[in-house]
Amino acid sequence: MLIKKGMALMRIKQLEYLEAVIETGSINEAAKRLYLTQPSLSSAIKDLEKEMGITILQRSNSGVRLTADGREFMNYAKQILDQVRLLDDRFKKQQPLHQSFAVSAQHYAFVVNAFVELIKEINSPSYKFTLRETETENIFNDLRTFKSELGVLYINNFNRRIISKLLTENGLEFTPLFTARPHVFLSRYNPLAKRHSISLADLTELPYLSFEQGENNSFYFSEEIQSTLSHKKEIKVSDRATIFNLMVGLNGYTISSGIISSKLNDDKIVAIPLELDDPITLGIVQHQHTITSQLGQEYIQLLKNHIRDYGFPIIGEDE
């Protein structure tokens, strides 16, 4: 019979095994990473499921993914593993405690600004922070596989049904932060930059810039509204710096929230209201039933501060 200490150690190992399986999406790949045989890893996971009395993984020929019970279980498991690693760093390795935090988001300046402020404010000699400005589908994957604690994206009337469905399927919830009318982002030197507002017809001859969405390039995953419209000139890019360079170099444009940072863009880009009734609501995405970490809470507050600085009321607080 195993003593309690041995049982505790085995439980932690099982959680580490499960984490590797989720990160790789495959028991075979996780076994290679862990230097285990596939049958022994599979057996360890099944033992954990039996002990917990739930099915944690949904297995198929294409790999594995968490069940609804599995997602909730991993919320607690990840907190345990984080604490174990902190103990190891502090006492086994004799290293000072380090803080870790990760965010996955669509391409928004206020997300980056808040991230910078968070790092400036932490009081730790060691930390590991990650900001993933990424494709919309990757936000769901990062949160589902616990690569990130928080996500940031938008919902509007066009994508609401699909995004809501994906949130439910992945055990996630969306908390709205603010609602904005669409704006056109373009170079300060573009003749349209002097307008008080811009119509879609005004943009017909300009290159339309948008963020690519990978293999699953669904209209519903687009970071730009009116994604089903056809354009005479269209350029897809993968990062925010490139899209701003093309606005200046090619007089291109994109459509976004209206929040733009002069600190990040050297005052070369402006946001002009678009003459279109299609508001977007930006918000936080995170696991259902999860406990937001202290860093997560601080980051959300910094997001709200930056949003207020740009004149937008926080939904449910400042209305």
TrEMBL record:
InterPro entries: LysR_HTH_N (IPR000847), LysR_subst-bd (IPR005119), WH-like_DNA-bd_sf (IPR036388), WH_DNA-bd_sf (IPR036390). The keyword Transcription regulation applies. It comes from the Bacteria. Gene3D superfamilies: 3.40.190.290, Winged helix-like DNA-binding domain superfamily/Winged helix DNA-binding domain (1.10.10.10). One of its GO terms (cellular component) is protein-DNA complex. Keywords: DNA-binding, Transcription, Transcription regulation. Pfam families: HTH_1, LysR_substrate. Belongs to the LysR transcriptional regulatory family. This is Transcriptional regulator CpsY. It comes from Limosilactobacillus antri DSM 16041.
